[in-house]
């Protein structure tokens, strides 16, 4: 996993051509007026999902991982805590959903705060629990760019 400010995204272009294209898409796109929804960047290899929501209590947020895609979660507006830990043989609480590329866990996590202008990258070996309130529920606008690994 990587947590950083979008101004430093060029440091991660060496992670591969798809990651470079994904970071360029984030850096060159004005998400402030974009509607919620899915946006294709490069067929099904790179796509973005713009979302707006209220953050929630930690107990109401699921811990997840993905097999086919890495997530670049970029905060457009607001701030949230994200629970993080490494996948290390933990047993899922639900079976992997191939269509949604998602599997859920119930594990202890450490929390980090990401705010407007920051991003977090989660690879298939990273468990993450997004959408946790920093103190009280608050609005967040975020884009999650999915990059096929």
Briefly characterize the structure.
The protein is mostly beta strands. 8% of the residues lie in helices and 47% in strands. The protein has 1 helix and 11 strands; from the N terminus they run E-H-E-E-E-E-E-E-E-E-E-E.
Structural account:
The protein has 149 residues and is mainly beta. The chain is built from 1 helix and 11 strands; from the N terminus they run E-H-E-E-E-E-E-E-E-E-E-E. The strands form 3 sheets. The protein has a 6-stranded antiparallel β-sheet with strand order 1-9-5-11-3-2, with helices on one face. Strands 8-6-10 form a 3-stranded antiparallel β-sheet, with no helix packed on it. Strands 4-7 form a two-stranded antiparallel sheet. The longest helix has 12 residues, at 17-28. The model has no long low-confidence stretch (mean pLDDT 97).
What are the key terms here?
149 residues; 6-stranded antiparallel sheet; 3-stranded antiparallel sheet; 1 helix; 8% helix; 47% strand
Distance between the termini: 14 Å
Strand content: over 45%
Enumerate how many helices there are, as a single number: 1
Shape: globular
> Strand-and-helix sequence, N→C?
EHEEEEEEEEEE
Largest sheet: 6 strands, antiparallel
Q: From the alpha-carbon coordinates, what is the Rg to the nearest angstrom? A: 14 Å
**What value does the average pLDDT take?**
97
Strand order of the largest sheet: 1-9-5-11-3-2
The helicity comes to: under 10%
- Structure class: mainly beta
pLDDT under 50 segments (min length 5)? none
SS elements, strand count: 11
């Amino acid at each position: 996993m990587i947590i950083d400010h979008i101004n430093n995204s060029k440091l991660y272009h060496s992670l591969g051509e798809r990651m470079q294209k994904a970071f360029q898409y984030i850096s060159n796109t004005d998400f402030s007026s974009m509607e919620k929804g899915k946006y294709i960047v490069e067929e099904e290899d790179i796509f973005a999902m713009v979302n707006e929501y209220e953050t929630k209590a930690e107990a109401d947020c699921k811990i997840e991982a993905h097999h086919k895609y890495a997530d670049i979660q970029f905060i457009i507006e607001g701030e949230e805590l994200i629970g993080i830990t490494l996948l290390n043989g933990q047993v899922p609480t639900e079976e992997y959903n191939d269509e949604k590329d998602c599997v859920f866990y119930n594990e202890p996590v450490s929390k980090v705060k990401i705010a407007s202008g920051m991003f977090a990258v989660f690879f298939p070996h990273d468990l993450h629990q997004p959408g946790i309130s920093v103190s009280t529920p608050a609005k967040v606008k975020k884009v999650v760019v999915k990059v096929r690994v």
